[in-house]
Specification:
- By secondary structure, the protein is mainly alpha-helical.
- It is built from eleven helices and no strands.
- Helix 2 crosses helix 5, helix 5 packs parallel to helix 9 and helix 7 runs antiparallel to helix 11.
- The longest helix is centred in the middle third of the chain and has 24 residues.
- It is elongated and about 55 Å long.
- 26% of the residues are buried.
Amino acid sequence: MSEATRLSAGDWARAALKAIAEGGLAAVAVEPLARTLGVTKGSFYAHYRNRDELITAALSEWGRSHGEAGLARFAAIEDPAQRLRELLTVVVQAVQPLAPSVHLSLLGDRNDPRVKEAIGQVNRARLDLLTRTYRELGLAPDRAASRARVAYAAILGLLHLAQTDPDAPEPAVLADEAAAIFLASRV
């Protein structure tokens, strides 16, 4: 089996996402990715014509895995309070001190149309699920949308803070606090 058939296009896209998390779109370069993956550039060209095609594929993968498809298991939880609690817990526990973030790294490239589309797709899916959840918890439509935005902003803020704060509290503590704050008032 040749190295080109051992690695899939998805393997390259995931490696590109890791590079994006660590340094934005500028960090996506074929030769360093090939070294990281332990293959030659020929493997890359078996799957992609050029770097731009890889970036498009990586952003599409991120949009899918962190947008609607990535939220499907939470969307399937019927009890909105349990849905919100589980969503907040998983998200907050995934926040690791000093860990790079694709979402935050992409903000530096937010004027790139591909990045705008990917971030927009992820933001819409997350805000839609949070808004739906708050509606099901009894909030009026406008209030549910506002509460969803504040909850989502807090989640993004935790991601940002985690990149620079090695002394952040344990994720379980943060998850409990997030649930207490964002489930405190349902009306």
